Amino acid sequence: MTIVPEETLESSPTLDEVFAAHHGGKLATGLTASLADARDLAIAYTPGVAEVSRAIAADRSLAATYTWAERLVAVVSDGTAVLGLGNIGPRAALPVMEGKSALFKTFGGLDSIPIVLDTTDIDEIVETLVRLRPSFGAVNLEDVSAPRCFELERRLIEALDCPVMHDDQHGTAIVLLAALRGACAVQGRGLADLRIVISGAGAAGVACARILLAAGATDVVVLDSRGIIVAGRSGVTGEKALLAEVTNPRGLLGGPDVALAGADVFVGLSCALLPEELLAGMRPDAMVFALSNPDPEVHPDVAARYASIVATGRSDFPNQINNVLAFPGVFRGALDAGARRITEEMKLAAADAIFAVASDDLAADRIVPSPFDPRVAPAVSAAVEKAAKGRS
Question: pLDDT by residue (tens digit) across 104-114?
Answer without folding.
Answer: 999 999 999 99
